[in-house]
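Suppose you are handed a protein chain with no further information: no name, no annotation, nothing but its sequence. What can you learn? This example shows the usual starting point.
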Amino acid sequence: MKASVLIGQNVNDRKNTAQVATANQLVIPGFYNLSNVNGVPTNSNALAIRRLWGIYADVNLAYKNYLFLELTARNDHSSTLPLDNNSYFYPSANLSFVFTDAFKLSNKYLTFGKFALNYARVGKDAPPYSVKEIYASPSTSNQAYTITDGHQNVQIEFPYNGVAGFTKGNVLGNPNLTPEFTTAMEFALDLGFLEDRIGVSFNYFNNKSEDQIIPIQLPASTGFRAQFVNAATMTNKGIELLLRGVPVLNKNFKWEMSLNYSKVDNNVEKLYGGLNQVSIGNGTTFVGGDIVAAIGKPWGQLLVTQFLRDPEGHVVVDPNTGYPLTDPNDQLAGSVLPDYTAGMTNTFSYKSFSLSFTFDTKQGGLIYSRTKSTMTFSGTDPITIYNNREPFVVPNSVIQNPDGSYSANNIQVDPFTYWANSGNAVTNVAGENLIDASYIKLRELNLSYVLPKKWISKTPFGDVTVSVYGRNLWIKTAKDNHYLDPEVSSFGTGNVQGYDYGALPSVKSIGGMVRFTF
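A reasonable first move is to predict its three-dimensional structure. Written in structure tokens, the prediction is:
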């Protein structure tokens, strides 16, 4: 029996400061200096301080090098939570058993076998200043912090007559916040066959996240735009599968291959205040839509305006004009989350040469594309050449009769008005600008050569490897996506995904490298 124990304490202090001076006009064009400002520059300063204080323990036990148990525990105190509820505890346990060693099962067919059971509970605090309101200096350059005269709606700039002023922030504090927790359980199985020429790794996981802290919208009449609350409980269940193998192996040549597959089923179980859905994008994501969490559906639903449709899915048009009607109720169109992800890597080695390439794919999920909307508006989208840009009847459309029944539509519409120049035009209806976010990518290609030992025998180097590589060299998107790389996100890496506002495509890079070892 072997054992090791680690006990520790950690303090994490973060302090972020920002100072910005903005000028609308320069005296000398091109000379970017505050002394060259025509008028008085607008100044702003921001300060954010966060402290996390924790103690932790890690215990590792090993029995005869085939049975392993790891236990961890941590207790944190966070400055971003209410003072009387800022302490939270979370443990984990990991049990693994190498049964091929325990029962001496290893042979030329079954080389290695292990299974593992994991349990973990992880706590998370809130963003800074979620408990109480902050104060900010009013600024005409920041629409969230402006003050007007209350008469002619003229914005007032501070300092005003030499006197500084501050206004409350637009996020309402929540003194009742509690930590959010994720409880994760996992089963893993690793197998190796034929002296590790073939390997299989399988993971099944079941995670539950409770009391997730997200901002929800507030009515403007409250004087605030949002409030951080413990808003959601959701589950993630899924599998991860990795297959690895060496199909060919001889004296000079080796072919290694690996395939991975991951599928996650996400479901929103509960929302704040018994609501059916809450905004993740805080209601300001894009015109005609939002990103929401909805009960009984995967996280990240696109809530969008749609053309009105009959029970059979036909587009309902105005009986007088022939143009589509917009559904008065926004619709949940689907999630930004993929159905599954997968990847494949191959490496071919011949003597001192090595060639490797990696493909990966994401299938399923939706993205709202402002790029598509803009291309439709400008007439550069291929769909706008429908019927050679001559008047046409809206495809798959019907007219609702006075008795509530539907009949086929035969009224022609003007292409320009249909695509771009009306309130119900395709470019203005968010649901008509959703695209399938699926893709297959050649993620990386690498060719390397290890210099012969005799070439470097008189140098201090052990090995010298010369490589050329390329990344993001090729992509295949879904049939309806002629517009963008689905991996783009105009909102970064946070909760709000599935939105493109003219985002730049991924960068294709080609380069070389020389690596030395000593």
